[in-house]
Structure formats: structure tokens, C-alpha cells
């Protein structure tokens, strides 16, 4: 018998649904399928459902009156075992400038990994990274799919300040700092695109299940894109993703 | 009538808060909102405001504020010796404000956070459905000297002052924090479980709207978990053996084992604890949200 999913209350206003402790696209597909089901079942005004790698958390606006009933209802929803494909998946193409000014640790990575800087950039821009979820900071995407050859440990001493837009690697993860903050990741470039905007609804176009692909731009192109962004004329390149 | 409060002195750390931002956790946006919801409700109730009208959350050393027009205020939560002009005022009652009045605070007597409600609430910007201040989401993140905050002035009486209501302030001073087992509680060794049930813990000086650390170091051999959801009230156990109680501005996900989950009341109580205070974890009398801790 499979013990998962494990459905348990988390305080008075939350129910946590945990699946096998693994990081995979197959599990993500399952989570997002059930997430849709839950949002359909509950009125979205009353609950919020978030996913991580292997969990769904239902947060209720009010204290749950009868946890037993909730758990039963959720189990019934999950009884439907046929998992559908993720809907409306998109690929977002994000420009990254890997030049010296931004790629603070590119030299270090290339030495440690015995790759030329060009190879590092090629390996980093090749995959279609999967967005598993957003967390940590507003607009911080948890991306899966980093090439094993680029996996590298964090810096021994975290930097006091990493620039907004910095693209980095920490162990098997790669990501973009949505705002300047202290951090320990190895930095290899900078992405000028702001994809979290508090004045938009939704504030972030990219969501769980989407794909991200980086492409390398020169310093000049970076400046040009930054200018277009500040003028509001920059068009983020995206297309539908057919898994 | 447009009216404003001028910040003559910002005090230690004050923000505007309401019930917080719902529906944006999936974008990594914290829930935010008042640390102590009981005090917000009390202060708004006294003024017959809407339950979720925005209030000022004041931490320990209060600000000095000047009002440009008549209104009414009420203060709840921690007692920080508020004074109107030079006269001391009480918590939990309607205080009439006249043009030019100055509100200031003195010695913190009990509790950590005080809540200043104003007739009809503070009218600062609403971002993503809430007026709660949070870095990079709202324009301001804390009160600064010279800042001006809008409110609706009112010359006339909106209602007659009613008899004083008695408010239960026991939660402000109680040491017992209500908790449920967290998702990883069952994975703890028995010694740690009973330690959590029985020991007293002290509030560390490292505490803010994001998280409150406890000073004691526990013997911990638990492995980090795959990054998973966390909520205000989640108690994490770090690899170094520290307990961290996540509060209203906490991140939406985390990788440390989640050993306990505070009840709603427990979060409000925790919000009123200051460095050096002692607490004990206790199951609520009639657990609604889950199994009892003991």
C-alpha cells in the first residue's frame, strides 16, 4: 500500500497534503492536477492552494470547523486517479548577460568545473528549466533541470549584496534574484527582465508548470533591453509549450 | 475632510497593517498583516470601525504623532504608556482627538506591540489587496520622521460614546502558547518531543515580524526536508538546534523541519512576547485542528 498522499491539518487554518519526497516533473504534474481540482472544489475566495516540490497546502480564510469532513472531501477528490496534462504551459525566454560585469563567478565556475566560460554559458542556456513553484521571495522561481556538470556548492562566505536580476547556481538549483539581497549562490550573469510586478494582477506571469529558457545577450543588448523595459516597450518572448 | 498625521518622531519600529495579503502566496508574497489580530479587532471594535480597517502597529518604543484634524482613536494590545499632549491615556477606550493634538508613548509596561486604530482606518495605499506594509511591495516599510499619513477627519460625532467594554487581556501576559504538532513532529525522537512539551523556552533578541527565535539550543540530528510550505505560526527546527517561530511576514516556503504549528491564538500571544520573556508550549483545551500534542 502506498502511504501517500498524507493529509494532515497544519494548525487551525491549513491542511497539508504530502506526496512522496521526491523532485520530479511527473510529481509536479500530479500536484498541479490536484491543485486545480481543489481550487475548483473550494471557492477560491475562501481558500488558497499552493504547491511546492511534493506538497500542497490548502490555507483557509477561517478556522476549519470539522477537519475530519475536510479530509474526507479531499480524499474523495483525489480518488480520481487519472492525471491530466498541465494546462496552458508556456515557455518564457529570458535574456541573460553573462559578461564579466555581471558574471562575478563565471571564471571560478569554469575553473572548478574544467569547462571554458563559453561551455558554461552553453550548458546554462541549453535546458528548458521547469518552474516548480515560487517562494522564498516574491517572484523567486524554483527551477529544475540544471545540467549536472554545472552543479557547484554555494560560496563559503555569502555575499552581503547580490544585485537584483543576478542569475546564480547553488548546488543543483539555478535561479534569478528578484531583488538585491544577501546570498551565497555562485553568480554567472544578470537578467534585466522584471517578471514580478506588484502593480499587475497576477503580479507574476510565470507560474508553476511553466518552462524558462535563458538566452545569452551582450552588454549592449542588455542595456538596450533595460531601456525598453523602463520605457515599457519590451516584449517578453513566450510561446505555448507542448510537452 | 482630508486630514493627516505627521510623524514627529518614528519611534523604534511602526508599520501600517490590516489582515494582510491573501491569494498571493503562490507568487512568493508573504501574508503579512497585524502580528496580533486580537488587538486589531479590539481597537477597531471600540471605534465601530470595519473589522479589517488598517491600524498602526507599534513596537515597544512608540512614535510621536501630530493630528491635523479632529478624529477619534483607540489603542489596544501592549500598554506603552500613551499620552495625549501631556496627559496619560488608557488602552481600550475611545480617545477624542482635536486639531493639533500630539500623541506620544512612554515606558513599555506590558506586551510587545500596541495597536493604534483611527476612525475609519488609515487610508494608505492598497497593494495586492492589502494596506499592510512590506518591503518592495508597499512604498513604505516603516514609519519615518516627517512622513504624513492620511485619514478621514470628522468634526461631528459619528456616534455616542458607549459604556466601556471589558476586554480580556490575559493573553498578553500568559506564558502558555497553544500549539499543534507540526508536519515533522512525529519524526522527532521521544526525548525532543517531551522536551518541547515540558520545557520553558525564552524569546531571543533575534525577533521581528518575520520570525521569533528561541534562545535554547536543542540537540538535533534531524535532516533538512525538501523545501515545503510554511505558514505564520510554523515552528522550525534548524540544523543548529534552534527553534524559529515564523510570524506574519514569513517566507512562503522553507527547508527546515516543521515541528510545531501555533494555534491562531498562539500566534497572537507570541506577537506580544519580547526578548527575555519565557514561554511554554501547550495543546489547546479542545483541539479543533488536529491531534493533541500530549
What percentage of amino acids of chain B are in beta strands?
Answer: 25-35%
Number of helices of chain B: 4
Radius of gyration of chain A (CA) equals 20 Å
Spatial arrangement of strands, main beta sheet of chain A:
7-6-13-5-14
Average residue pLDDT of chain B:
92
The largest β sheet of chain A comes out as: 5 strands, mixed
Low confidence ranges of chain A: none
CATH superfamily of the largest domain in chain A: Cyclophilin-like
Task: Name the overall outline of chain B.
Answer: globular
Q: Considering DSSP H and I runs of 4 or more, what fraction of the residues of chain B is helical?
A: 10-25%
Order of helices and strands of chain B: EEHEEEEEEEEEHEHEEEEEEEHE
Helix content of chain A: 10-25%
What is the number of strand segments of chain A? 14
Strand order of the largest sheet of chain B: 12-19-16-17-14-13-20
Report the top-level CATH class of the largest domain in chain A. Mainly Beta
Characteristic terms for this protein:
heterodimer, A: 243 residues, alpha+beta, Gyrase A, domain 2, Cyclophilin, 2 domains, five-stranded mixed β-sheet, four-stranded antiparallel β-sheet, 14 strands, 25% helix, 29% strand, B: 294 residues, mainly beta, seven-stranded mixed barrel, six-stranded antiparallel β-sheet, 4 helices, 10% helix
Description:
- The complex is a heterodimer of chains A (243) and B (294).
- Chain A has 243 residues and is of the alpha+beta class.
- Chain A has helices spanning 25-41, 67-79, 106-113, 117-125, 219-231, and strands at 6-9, 14-18, 47-51, 55-60, 90-97, 129-134, 141-144, 159-162, 166-170, 173-176, 181-183, 186-190, 211-217, 237-240.
- Chain B folds into two domains: 2-155, no CATH class; 171-282, Cyclophilin (Beta Barrel).
- In chain B, 10% of the residues lie in helices and 34% in strands.
- Chain B has four helices and 20 strands.
- In chain B, the strands form four sheets. Chain B has a seven-stranded mixed beta barrel. Chain B has a six-stranded antiparallel beta sheet with strand order 7-6-9-4-1-11, with no helix packed on it. In chain B, strands 2-3-10-5-8 form a five-stranded antiparallel beta sheet.
- Chain B is globular, with a radius of gyration of 20 Å.
- Chain B starts with a strand and ends in a 12-residue tail after the last strand.
- At the A-B interface, strand 2, strand 3 and strand 4 of A face strand 15 and strand 19 of B.
Amino acid at each position: 500500500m502506498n502511504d501517500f498522499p498524507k493529509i494532515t491539518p497544519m494548525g487551525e487554518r491549513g491542511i497539508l497534503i504530502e506526496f512522496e519526497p521526491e523532485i520530479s516533473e511527473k510529481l509536479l504534474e500530479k500536484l498541479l492536477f490536484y491543485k486545480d481540482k481543489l481550487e475548483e472544489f473550494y471557492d477560491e475566495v475562501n481558500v488558497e492552494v499552493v504547491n511546492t516540490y511534493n506538497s500542497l497546502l490548502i490555507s483557509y480564510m477561517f478556522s476549519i470547523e470539522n477537519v475530519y469532513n475536510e479530509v474526507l472531501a479531499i480524499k474523495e477528490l483525489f480518488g480520481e486517479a487519472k492525471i491530466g496534462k498541465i494546462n496552458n504551459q508556456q515557455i518564457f525566454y529570458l535574456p541573460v548577460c553573462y559578461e564579466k560585469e555581471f558574471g562575478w563567478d563565471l571564471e571560478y565556475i569554469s575553473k572548478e568545473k574544467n569547462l571554458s566560460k563559453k561551455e558554461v554559458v552553453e550548458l546554462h542556456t541549453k535546458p528548458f528549466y521547469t518552474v516548480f513553484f515560487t517562494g522564498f521571495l516574491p517572484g523567486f522561481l524554483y527551477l529544475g533541470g540544471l545540467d549536472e556538470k554545472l552543479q557547484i556548492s554555494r560560496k563559503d562566505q555569502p555575499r552581503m549584496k547580490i544585485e537584483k536580476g543576478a542569475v546564480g547556481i547553488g548546488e543543483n538549483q539555478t535561479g534569478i534574484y528578484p531583488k538585491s539581497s544577501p546570498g551565497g549562490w555562485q553568480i554567472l550573469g544578470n537578467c534585466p527582465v522584471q517578471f514580478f510586478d506588484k502593480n499587475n494582477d497576477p503580479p507574476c506571469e510565470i507560474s508553476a508548470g511553466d518552462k524558462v529558457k535563458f538566452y545569452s545577450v551582450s552588454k549592449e543588448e542588455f542595456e538596450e533591453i533595460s531601456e525598453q523595459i523602463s520605457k515599457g516597450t519590451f516584449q517578453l518572448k513566450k510561446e505555448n509549450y507542448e510537452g | 475632510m482630508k486630514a493627516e498625521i505627521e510623524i514627529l518622531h518614528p519611534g523604534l519600529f511602526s508599520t501600517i497593517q490590516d489582515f494582510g495579503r491573501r491569494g498571493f502566496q503562490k507568487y512568493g508574497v508573504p501574508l503579512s498583516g497585524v502580528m496580533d489580530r486580537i488587538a486589531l479587532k479590539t481597537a477597531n471594535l471600540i471605534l465601530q470601525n470595519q473589522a479589517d480597517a488598517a491600524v498602526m502597529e507599534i513596537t515597544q518604543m512608540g512614535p510621536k504623532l501630530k493630528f491635523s484634524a479632529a478624529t477619534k482613536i483607540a489603542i489596544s494590545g501592549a500598554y506603552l504608556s500613551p499620552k495625549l499632549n501631556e496627559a496619560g491615556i488608557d488602552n481600550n477606550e475611545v480617545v477624542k482627538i482635536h486639531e493639533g493634538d500630539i500623541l506620544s508613548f512612554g515606558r513599555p509596561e506590558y506586551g510587545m506591540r500596541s495597536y493604534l486604530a483611527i476612525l475609519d482606518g488609515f487610508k494608505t495605499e492598497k497593494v495586492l489587496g492589502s494596506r499592510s506594509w512590506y518591503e518592495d511591495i508597499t512604498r513604505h516599510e516603516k514609519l519615518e520622521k516627517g512622513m504624513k499619513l492620511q485619514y478621514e477627519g470628522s468634526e461631528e460625532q459619528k456616534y455616542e460614546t458607549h459604556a466601556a467594554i471589558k476586554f480580556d487581556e490575559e493573553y498578553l501576559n500568559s506564558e502558555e502558547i497553544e500549539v499543534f504538532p507540526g508536519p515533522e513532529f512525529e519524526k522527532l525522537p521521544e526525548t525532543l518531543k517531551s522536551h518541547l512539551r515540558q520545557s520553558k523556552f525564552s524569546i531571543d533578541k533575534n525577533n521581528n515580524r518575520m520570525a521569533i527565535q528561541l534562545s535554547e539550543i536543542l540537540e538535533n540530528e534531524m535532516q533538512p526536508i525538501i523545501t515545503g510550505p510554511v505558514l505564520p505560526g510554523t515552528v522550525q527546527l534548524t540544523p543548529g538546534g534552534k527553534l524559529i517561530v515564523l510570524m506574519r511576514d514569513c517566507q512562503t516556503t522553507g527547508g527546515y523541519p516543521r515541528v510545531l504549528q501555533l494555534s491562531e491564538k498562539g500566534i497572537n500571544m507570541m506577537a506580544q512576547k519580547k526578548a527575555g520573556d519565557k514561554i511554554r508550549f501547550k495543546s489547546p483545551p479542545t483541539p479543533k485542528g488536529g491531534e493533541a500534542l500530549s
